[in-house]
Write a structure and sequence with these properties.
Blueprint lengths: L10 E9 L1 H17 L7 E8 L5 E8 L2 H9 L4 H10 E8 L14
Antiparallel strand pairs: 1-3, 1-4, 2-3
Pfam families: ABM (PF03992)
InterPro entries: ABM_dom, Dimeric_a/b-barrel
Protein name: ABM domain-containing protein
Length: about 110
Amino acid sequence: MVSISPDGELFTLVNVFTVEPENQQRLCDHLAQVTEDLIRHMPGFVSANFHLGHDGRHVVNYAQWRSEADFRAMHADPRLEEHFAFCRSVSQPRQISCDVARTFRGVGEGGN
């Protein structure tokens, strides 16, 4: 389960991939498959969530790792070179590392 909390000590990444509409689902499927087969088994991986922009031109990945060092180790793994090359070939990726500042839930969802 994804835990989004300003009290968490997780390393959070938001990846925004700008794509041509014909590549949106293709990229999302690729990201999901690589995550299922390899990334989720790596040390420090917590979660990944993929979102398709209604405009057909964006895939957004919200990912969490136990630490930035765990994320960097994944990124340096040579088994993922083809994955990153594919992503760059079908999209313009933008990676943003974040700290969770605030979260809110609806009153009907257990929030105040």
